[in-house]
């Protein structure tokens, strides 16, 4: 407790008010939301198969699926509408690559944001004194900005495909008994997509945060400081060229000497 009070008294955490550190905290928080809403998702859909032989019907088949959305591994028991025999039916599609890529970027962004915030809070002076630190920070920020854009776009496309593959109307087409017009198949419940839709939103919000933070990290590098010094020196030099010397008014007070060569002499000399 004494250590925390001492740190607060010397203003260690005042750096969190700067855009550089404040945006890092937002990146850390939003990355948690991104991988939590995607990696922790599980959904369920329900379909029904009403056979002519009512004894073999199943009016509430629950189909569960979850992250990482390898749907081809998701199976359920569907009635064949022949006595009480059933068969195993698998969903179609594998969208694990996009989902795992998105979650991986989220986790690494979370770890880097936490590490960078710790450096800003406790080692800001060393961070600014060492030219390598801001340079690495700048490069990593640019890379993560690009990776957030790519992963969020890929995951948005994969999520759209997952919605189609798990649509109850599409799942009915996979059940052989539903191809017989004498049997009646229907959809009862569809999956809830609010969590996964939120993950896509957080993905693009993270891209905006990381891309916006590029400027504030760039200001800490020697590139920006060097250009600032050059611009300041050029402005001072330009201002010096327009500085005028004091004007000598004494030259106007002194009459100029005028002498006539071969001019007329005095009257006494002419006589």
From TrEMBL:
<feature type="domain" description="MARVEL">
    <location>
        <begin position="15"/>
        <end position="222"/>
    </location>
</feature>
<keyword id="KW-1133">Transmembrane helix</keyword>
<keyword id="KW-0472">Membrane</keyword>
<feature type="transmembrane region" description="Helical">
    <location>
        <begin position="135"/>
        <end position="156"/>
    </location>
</feature>
<dbReference type="InterPro" id="IPR008253">
    <property type="entry name" value="Marvel"/>
</dbReference>
<comment type="similarity">
    <text>Belongs to the synaptophysin/synaptobrevin family.</text>
</comment>
<dbReference type="Pfam" id="PF01284">
    <property type="entry name" value="MARVEL"/>
</dbReference>
<keyword id="KW-0325">Glycoprotein</keyword>
<feature type="transmembrane region" description="Helical">
    <location>
        <begin position="101"/>
        <end position="123"/>
    </location>
</feature>
<dbReference type="GO" id="GO:0030672">
    <property type="term" value="C:synaptic vesicle membrane"/>
</dbReference>
<feature type="transmembrane region" description="Helical">
    <location>
        <begin position="21"/>
        <end position="42"/>
    </location>
</feature>
<keyword id="KW-0812">Transmembrane</keyword>
<dbReference type="InterPro" id="IPR001285">
    <property type="entry name" value="Synaptophysin/porin"/>
</dbReference>
<feature type="region of interest" description="Disordered">
    <location>
        <begin position="243"/>
        <end position="271"/>
    </location>
</feature>
<protein>
    <submittedName>
        <fullName>Synaptoporin</fullName>
    </submittedName>
</protein>
<feature type="transmembrane region" description="Helical">
    <location>
        <begin position="200"/>
        <end position="218"/>
    </location>
</feature>
């Amino acid at each position: 407790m004494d250590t925390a009070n001492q740190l607060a008294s010397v203003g260690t955490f005042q750096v969190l008010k700067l855009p550089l550190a404040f945006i890092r905290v937002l990146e850390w928080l939003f990355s948690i939301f991104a991988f939590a809403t995607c990696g922790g998702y599980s959904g369920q859909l329900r379909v029904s198969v009403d056979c002519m032989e009512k004894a073999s019907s199943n009016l509430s088949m629950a189909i569960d699926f979850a992250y990482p959305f390898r749907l081809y591994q998701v199976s359920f028991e569907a009635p064949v509408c022949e006595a009480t025999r059933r068969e195993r039916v698998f969903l179609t599609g594998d969208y694990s690559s996009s989902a795992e890529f998105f979650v991986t970027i989220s986790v690494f962004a979370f770890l880097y944001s936490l590490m960078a915030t710790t450096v800003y809070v406790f080692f800001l002076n060393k961070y600014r004194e060492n030219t390598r630190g801001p340079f690495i920070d700048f490069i990593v920020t640019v890379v993560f900005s690009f990776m957030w854009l790519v992963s969020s776009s890929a995951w948005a496309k994969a999520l759209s495909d997952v919605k189609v593959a798990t649509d109850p109307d599409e799942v009915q087409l996979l059940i052989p008994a539903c191809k017989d017009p004498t049997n009646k198949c229907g959809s009862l419940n569809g999956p809830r997509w609010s969590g996964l839709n939120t993950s896509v939103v957080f993905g693009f919000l993270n891209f905006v945060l990381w891309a916006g933070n590029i400027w504030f990290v760039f200001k800490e590098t020697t590139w920006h400081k060097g250009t600032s010094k050059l611009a300041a020196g050029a402005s001072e030099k330009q201002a010096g060229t327009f500085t005028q010397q004091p004007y000598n008014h004494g030259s106007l007070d002194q009459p100029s000497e005028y002498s006539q060569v071969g001019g007329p002499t005095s009257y006494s000399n002419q006589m």
